[in-house]
Amino acid sequence: MKLSRPRRRQTPETIIALIDVVFFLLVFFMLIGRMDATSPFEVLPATASTGSDMPAGGATLSIGADGALALDSLATDQAGVLAGLKDQLAENPELLIRVNAHKDAVMADLLPLVARIEALGAKDVMLVVTPESP
């Protein structure tokens, strides 16, 4: 009697199904993914520099965490800051104004104040930043 073993069936390649799934996922995410809008002109982001000395002279506006204001180390309110800067700008139109804001100061309060300072005729307004300590 002649016995023969049954033929083994070849197992299908399961990697092909995986490749198909990955391809479809790739196409799906490319179609639904949101791309950032590009600018119609070249935009170069600002770069930070460390180690350079701050320019001497000028006025220093300090802003506390609670929104308290000081102009050249004298505590005052917003009207006092604007009046003081207006007088200083009348004497020196090239006056450099440094803004030294606390890290917890609210940016929504800072930006309108800087806009008012620029409306007075200030040409250079510099935001003082300090790098984090390691």
Structure, explained:
- The chain has helices at residues 14-32, 78-91, 107-119; strands at residues 59-63, 69-71, 74-76, 96-101, 124-127.
- By secondary structure, the protein is of the alpha/beta class.
- It has a 5-stranded mixed beta sheet, covered by helices on one side.
- β1 (59-63) and β2 (69-71) form a beta hairpin.
- The longest helix has 19 residues, at 14-32.
- It is rod-shaped.
Keywords:
single chain; 134 residues; alpha/beta; five-stranded mixed beta sheet; 3 helices; rod-shaped
State the low-pLDDT regions, or none. none
Topology as a string of helices (H) and strands (E): HEEEHEHE
Strands ordered across the widest β-sheet: 3-2-1-4-5
Helical element count? 3
Helical residue percent band: 25-40%
Main sheet makeup: 5 strands, mixed
Shape: rod-shaped
Query: Can you count the beta strands?
Result: 5
What is the arithmetic mean of pLDDT?
78
Distance between the termini: 85 Å
Class from helix and strand fractions? alpha/beta
Question: Approximately how much beta-strand content do the residues carry?
Answer: 15-25%
Rg (C-alpha, Å): 32 Å
